[in-house]
Fold this sequence. Notes:
By secondary structure, the protein is an all-alpha fold. It has helices at residues 2-16, 18-28, 34-65, 70-90, 94-99, 109-118, 121-129, 138-160, 162-202.
Amino acid sequence: MFQLFFTKFIAFFTVIDPIGTIPVFIAMTSNMTNEQKVSVAKKATFAASGVLLFFIAVGEVILEVIEIPLSNFQIAGGIVLFLFALTMIFGESKPEEELSHVDNKDDMAIFPIAIPSLASPGAILAVMLLTEKSKYSIQEQFITSLIMLTVMAIAWFFMLFSTKIFHKIGNSGAALISRVMGLILSAVAVNHILMGLSAFFNH
């Protein structure tokens, strides 16, 4: 049980990447008061959590409506996750990539902080793959949702103390951590591809 919890926690921590969100949050809220920063962090966390919970609840139903087997989605999702991981390792790090989207948006809590920094395509794919209804019971899906929300709470905590954390690790430190997370994510992605292939050939 603990190993399953730890595995899913690492998977969510990797794809959500709370540390990589810190430079984005600092850039977007640099001219705000502490009260405004708290409000933005709260709104971004709730918005990103809502998006991921939505896909946990109805993502698989959407696939069933358009008649796509989950094994096919798992293979495709694993490939996308792997490509996403490669961009984290070899391309622009998450801080650099997300900061490139920073401009004078009216609601920066939603874009780019909530989406795509927290609720990234990789995170959306991960929540759907880790809550497969034919594989996991309602209780296990509930626990997975709690694990995801725990990582979101960590992201919220990091945003609240973003200035202090960023002064400690710097942009280079955040980029390094993002690349390590990308390496871990690549292993998770390969595992999903192999599981999808196994399910496909068994059927």
